């Protein structure tokens, strides 16, 4: 039995995303992700006017007649959301928790994919694979993915991004667009991410809260690490502390950005205090210009 509060939340997300995923947004999604490759269709006998560069020399030698390889543009896309729902995601000081933001972000793209008749799948992970739903089509399937994201019971677990990436590589044989959604507190995953990006189109989605970027001056605060349970008390009224905190936060984010850039991974950073649709639109425009 799904709790009434969860049903209400799903409806709110559905209404919000249906407004966000308008004709313009869906068109931008299609222009960026559709037709990004060619897939083999058939081998047929050569006819005058065919491009000689498409001749299949093996079949031609075997049959004694010229044959060509025919390719068609890939129109059906497979989208997979690999979402980190470790304990550190249960944090938010503005509008919503980071995990709620991650769910809504995935919902927007999932509904855009459904409108374009694409397959959508979901992987929820912490320091283990919590749930895997293979890609399928349809808005009903998308609603199930959103329900699983919101209904996931939060264990006090840490994060293992390489494990999740290796799992995606094993279960996703056909080329897919993979959105890796995480707060990226873990740092040792460059090798796994680079390997996965060689076979798939991987896009990183760093999820952050405003306080993780800049600490406000609100006096003494007790912090508990959601993943380790460690508790510390800090004096946020100290300007020196706030400056050091901001510098470390910026340095950590820049290191992540530089690492992603070094292995040709695009990213769409989102925060709990700002609408994310405009971030997605800018991302679409950037990719469209590149193409």
Total number of helical segments?
10
SS-derived structural category: alpha/beta
Radius of gyration: 22 Å
Largest sheet: 7 strands, mixed
Number of domains: 2
Overall spatial form: elongated
CATH architecture of the largest domain: 3-Layer(aba) Sandwich
**What is the number of beta strands?**
11
Q: Could you please describe the fold and organization of this structure?
A:
With 291 residues, this protein is of the alpha/beta class. It folds into two domains: 4-32 and 75-209 and 245-290, von Willebrand factor, type A domain (Rossmann fold), CATH 3.40.50; 38-73, no CATH class. The protein has ten helices and eleven strands. It has helices at 4-20, 23-33, 57-63, 98-115, 139-151, 161-171, 190-199, 210-213, 239-262, 277-290, and strands at 38-45, 67-73, 78-84, 119-125, 129-136, 177-182, 201-208, 220-224, 231-235, 266-267, 270-271. Strands 3, 4, 5, 6, 7, 10 and 11 form a seven-stranded mixed sheet that branches. It has a two-stranded antiparallel ribbon with strand order 1-2. A two-stranded antiparallel ribbon has the order 8-9. The longest helix has 24 residues, at 239-262. The N and C termini lie far apart (46 Å). The model has no long low-confidence stretch (mean pLDDT 83).
